[in-house]
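Okay, can you check this protein?
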Amino acid sequence: MKILAYDVENLPMIGSFWGLWDQNISHKNIIEHASIISIAWGFVDEKQINLTSIADCRSRLEHNIYDDYHPVTRFHRVLNSQDEFVLLAHNGDNFDIKKLNTAFLRHNLPPVNPRQSIDTLKEARRLFRIDSNKLDYLARFLGVGEKLPTGGQELWNNITQWKYPEYGVKPDKALALQALKHMGEYNQHDVTLLKGVFDKMRNRIKIPNALLYNPRAGDMRCPDCMSAKFKSIGYRYTGISKIPRYRCKSCERIFTQRTAEYQTNFRIN
């Protein structure tokens, strides 16, 4: 089973308002809607981290820094491919995939192939009581690294000043391009951290059954790493039955016989 880790970075909204404190801003005051800066992605079993950004299409960038058509259409092709893979993201179910679907709708792109997903934020909240579930903290906690520094909101401001500079300051395109480059590196590094966090959590969290993607008729396999080496560790009890339970000797995932045999003999006539 192939798992595609991905992460989306966005530009903030630009709007009109009457003050700096306790403002209730109407949707009619939105001047620029939030758009996508860049998208990074890579398969968990591969080192390569791909990146697409608004900086890749200079003509659109020159016209409007809030034009995200290029990165959106490129990643749309990735998601809409015929390849079988599962999506992996941190808060992806509630944020990243919805931001992408919004962009696909805005650019009149067809719906992408539905895919199963793994959300490390959901799983961290469901299973553990870690002091913080932010990706940066999880990565530090699990010893796989930390996020690259951004300098805070300034990095995003350095990009948007291409079209909307700070009051009394002229736009600096060189600064914006430098900020876009740093944002791309930040985006790619987040995917590296995500893969590291997932690797540490993998044998404890819920993930799609690999046997659905790699059917092996006639024998039992670990539903994650596909190993045929496992040992019996008793039973899982329900209200009306008990199901044999095993521990994989390769990845140490605990699973039931029902899961290990799931659809291994499935056939399409």
Observations:
- The chain has two domains: 3-201, 218-260.
- The radius of gyration is 22 Å.
